[in-house]
Amino acid sequence: MLCVYSGCFAKLPVALLPETISGMGFEGVDLTVMPGGHVDPSKYMVQMDRAFQMFQDASLEVPMISTNYTSASQPFAYAVFYVSD
């Protein structure tokens, strides 16, 4: 599976990512889940679900996420990892 890091498209809103990424021939995305990323961790319940659904609707996979967490005790870390499983 060929995936792309969504941080390469930081200026694009998440709603435009699926079409852009699939149009380039990628099969999946490494989604940025961090402040300033495509998903804000403090809004994970809504934004992650929407993002995952948009990628799924475009027949793309989200096999990984990139965060700036360095500890599971950081705010929202456990919840983000739980939801992304």
Describe the structure using short key phrases.
alpha/beta, 85 residues, three-stranded parallel beta sheet, 34% helix
Determine the strand fraction and express it as a percent band. Answer: 15-25%
Strands, count: 3
Termini Cα gap: 18 Å
Poorly predicted runs: none
- SS-derived structural category: alpha/beta
**Count of DSSP helices?**
3
The helix fraction, in percent, is: 25-40%
User: How would you write the strand order of the largest sheet?
Assistant: 1-2-3
Walk me through the structure:
The protein has 85 residues and is an alpha/beta fold. The protein is 34% helix and 16% strand. It contains three helices and three strands. The chain has helices at residues 17-23, 44-57, 77-84, and strands spanning 3-5, 28-32, 61-66. A three-stranded parallel β-sheet has the order 1-2-3, covered by helices on one side. Strand 2, helix 2 and strand 3 form a beta-alpha-beta unit. Helix 2 (44-57) packs parallel to helix 3. The chain is globular and about 40 Å long. The chain starts with a strand and ends with a helix. The model has no long low-confidence stretch (mean pLDDT 93).
Write a short abstract of this structure.
By secondary structure, the chain is α/β, with parallel strands linked by helices. It has helices at residues 17-23, 44-57, 77-84; strands at residues 3-5, 28-32, 61-66.
Describe how the helices and strands are arranged:
Blueprint (H helix, E strand, L loop, with lengths): L2 E3 L11 H7 L4 E5 L11 H14 L3 E6 L10 H8 L1
Parallel strand pairs: 1-2, 2-3
